[in-house]
Amino acid sequence: MSLKNLRKQTNPNSSNEQENKVLGEAFWNLVKLYGFNQMEQAALLGIKYNRQRLKDFSDDQVIPDDVDKKYRVGLLLGIHKNLRILFPHNKEIVYGWMKSSQADFNGKIPIEYIMENLDESLPRLASIRRRLDYIRCAE
């Protein structure tokens, strides 16, 4: 084994960078598929809206290096997975669900529910994920 390979294996930053890259690519692909605008993207990531910062993240296909941001992307991926399982043959429903009125949220639109109180965006994102988990498991 070369010294370069040994450093890669023992360098925690190399796996962290790879994880951030994978999660970043997943996040930016999902926001594109769902048609989230920059304000919605910032809310989903739990960051203050800054057009240039979001553009830089998008261009580099990364997210901020923060456990909170990784958790948020994981929740969004879980929401997407549940929607794909619940509506396997209807991509219109899958990609429109977050922007359509939902009875489970008192008729609110999920992305608006998240953005309604930005200080509560993480628990609201988690509640959407939990609700979809429940619906998927109940079927």
What does it look like?
It contains 8 helices and no strands. It is an all-alpha fold. Helix 2 packs across helix 5 (67-86) and helix 5 (67-86) runs parallel beside helix 8.
Structure summary, number of beta strands: 0
Oligomer: single chain
Number of helices: 8
Mean pLDDT: 89
What proportion of the residues is helical, as a percent range?
over 70%
What kind of sheet is the major sheet? none
**CA-atom Rg in angstroms:** 17 Å
Tell me the fraction of residues in β-strands, as a range: under 5%
Separation of the first and last Cα atoms: 51 Å
Order of helices and strands: HHHHHHHH
- Tally of structural domains: 1
Shape: globular
Low-confidence stretches: 1-8
Query: Which structural category fits the helices and strands?
Result: mainly alpha
Pfam families: Xre_MbcA_ParS_C
InterPro entries: Xre/MbcA/ParS-like_toxin-bd (IPR024467)
Domain Antitoxin Xre/MbcA/ParS-like toxin-binding: 83-136
Protein name: Antitoxin Xre/MbcA/ParS-like toxin-binding domain-containing protein
